[in-house]
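To close the section, here is one more complete example, presented without commentary so you can practise reading it yourself. The ligand is NAP.
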Amino acid sequence: MKVVVVGASGTMGSRVVKYLERDGRNVVEASSSTGVSALTGKGLDEAFDGADAVIDVTNFGSFGSGDALGFFKQAGTNLLKSARKHNIRHYLALSVVGAESLVENDYFRAKLVQENLIRASGLPHTIVRSTQFFEFLGGIVGSSADNGVIRLPMVRLQPIAGDEVAAWIAKLIAEQPRNSIVEIGGPEPADLVELANELMTITEDNRPVTADPNAPYFGVSVRHEGLVPSIPAARGKLTYHDWLSRTLRA
Ligand SMILES: NC(=O)c1ccc[n+]([C@@H]2O[C@H](COP(=O)([O-])OP(=O)(O)OC[C@H]3O[C@@H](n4cnc5c(N)ncnc54)[C@H](OP(=O)(O)O)[C@@H]3O)[C@@H](O)[C@H]2O)c1
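Output:
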C-alpha cells in the first residue's frame, strides 16, 4: 500500500511516517521542504502518482494570526483535486476536536472549512479530529504569560500523546474509509490550569498559574467543556504525567 503523507516533516507527520513504515507501508513524504506545496499544487501530481491513500497533516505556520482560512481552503482544494485525478482510495485529514466551539478564531474556522471541502468532494475519506497533543501544551501555557503570571482560561482539555494519534492514523488509513468524522482524545479530561501546574512543577518553573474566567483561548472565549470530545472513537492510554516524566528523562 502506497501512502502519501502531506506535512510529513511536522510534529504529527513525522510520527505518522514512523508508524506507517513500522506497518510496512510504502510511504511518500511530502512537505514544503521536499519540494511539494499543497498551497501552489507544485509536485502534488508526481507525489500522488500510483498512490492508494493520502494523509493530510499540513499546518498553517502562524496560529491565530495570518491567513489560515486562505491556507486551508487553497491547500485543501489542491490536495483534493490531485487526489481525485489519481483515484485515491482513502483520503484522511487531521482536524481538531471542538473546532466548532472556536469559530471566532480564524484558524479553527479554517479547520471547519477544510473538513467541509473534504465532505463535499465525494472522495472516500476519514476526518480524524484530535484533542490537543501533549507536545502542544507548553505552547498554550507559554503564550498565556502575562506580566510574569500564567493566566489561563477556565477550560477542560483531554490532551493526548502525538504518538498515540499517529499510531491510530496509521491504522485507520489501512481500513475502509469511514466517510465521517472520528474523534480521538487522551485518557482523561483535566482543567487546563491543572495541566499547566503539572508542567510548571516538573519543569521547575516558579511563575504563578491562575485560572481567569475572562482569559481567552487563542483570542476567543470558550465553554468549559467545549474542547472535550463527546464520544471519542479512540482514547490514548498514556497520561500527561507519565508522558512528561518520559519526555524529560529522554
Ligand atoms: N497541535 C495540536 O495539538 C493539534 C491537535 C489536533 C489537530 N491538529 C492538526 O494537526 C495538523 C498537523 O499539525 P502539526 O502540529 O503536526 O503541524 P506542524 O508541526 O506545524 O507541521 C506542519 C507540516 O505542514 C507542512 N506544510 C506547511 N505548509 C505546507 C505547504 N504549503 N505544502 C506542503 N506542506 C506544507 C510543513 O512542512 P515544512 O516543515 O516542510 O514547511 C510540516 O511538515 C494540523 O492541521 C492541526 O490542525 C493539531
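Once you have examined the C-alpha cells, check your reading against these statements. The longest helix spans residues 68-85. The chain has one domain: 2-249.
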